[in-house]
Design a protein that fits this description.
two-stranded antiparallel sheet, alpha/beta, single chain, binds S-adenosylmethionine, 10 helices
Length: about 260
């Protein structure tokens, strides 16, 4: 019996071979180690296994095994693991690359897992257009938020192509974009400073309509006037909002933050 796509697992399958070939080519994974999230019925997986050095693919839905078994038999370099990608502890020994048509309901957590996992150098992902707009947004744009700042600090991000919703079965309610993120090796902050930076950026955007001073007041035991003085000393107006700040502003402000 044909597989009934499961909405709760974000199952929207691709079949167009030209599109799949293009994603694999632009992901630049030839002869490299690849991690796929959600192989589904294996549409992307077979092209990845053909080109990569090896592929490990994590699939939450065991009922897709009937589609994936023949591929695992065909390709010696393919290993399918039937587990929830968000629950596994990744310990990546060799530099690896994510390629995935990701389930939309966990796009952001997957991006954070990519950022936090050592030795995953790039991620080529099909994501909903709205999230792609956020990732690429610049100050004063509506979509600009903490995710935009963090992703642009950690990675160099490229939009590879737009994909119409009708390329999927079943068609989702949104159009998609394939992006490729490559971790920067020239990051300006050390590990401790980065922890401070992440917290600072997230707090700065707690409520987008509020001023930076008000959002930073969520730090425990800080005095509002001290925040105002700190901003003024660094040359910022006390009415400034997070959405007006560039990544360099956030780096400067979080680095000196001791309140
Ligand atoms: N790669 C296939 C394709 O392009 O046709 C399927 C893509 S579909 C958008 C997302 C896939 O991710 C589904 O096969 C779904 O079962 C799987 N999935 C959903 N949540 C997952 C999770 N937490 N861990 C691993 N796989 C997951």
């Amino acid at each position: 019996m044909a597989h009934q796509a499961k909405k709760r697992f974000g199952q929207n399958f691709l079949t167009d071979k030209n599109l799949l070939e293009k994603i694999v080519r632009l992901s630049k994974i030839k002869s490299l180690h690849v991690i796929e999230i959600g192989p589904g019925q294996g549409a992307l997986t077979s092209f990845l296994a053909r080109d990569a050095k090896d592929v490990i693919a994590y699939e939450i839905d065991y009922s897709l095994k009937k589609y994936l078994d023949p591929l695992e038999n065909k390709f010696d370099n393919l290993n399918i693991v039937y587990e929830d990608f968000m629950k596994i502890e990744l310990d990546i020994k060799e530099v690896s690359h994510i390629v995935a048509n990701v389930p939309y309901y966990i796009t952001t957590p997957i991006i954070f897992k990519f950022l936090e996992t050592e030795n995953i150098q790039t991620a080529t992902m099909m994501i909903q257009k709205e999230v792609a707009d956020r990732l690429n947004a610049t100050p004063n744009q509506k979509a600009y938020n903490s995710l935009s700042v963090l992703i642009q600090y950690y990675t160099k991000i490229e939009k590879l192509m737009q994909v119409n919703r009708h390329m999927f079965h079943p068609a989702p309610n949104v159009d998609s974009i394939v992006i490729r993120m490559e971790k920067r090796t020239d990051r300006l902050l050390d590990e401790n400073e980065e922890k401070k930076f992440i917290d600072f950026v997230k707090r700065s955007f707690t409520q987008k309509r509020k001023t930076l001073v008000n959002n930073l007041s969520t730090y425990p035991n800080v005095i509002k006037q001290d925040i105002i003085n700190y901003l003024n000393d660094l040359g910022y107006d006390e009415r400034i909002r997070a959405e007006q700040l560039t990544i360099d502003d956030f780096i400067k402000l979080s680095k000196g933050w001791t309140l």
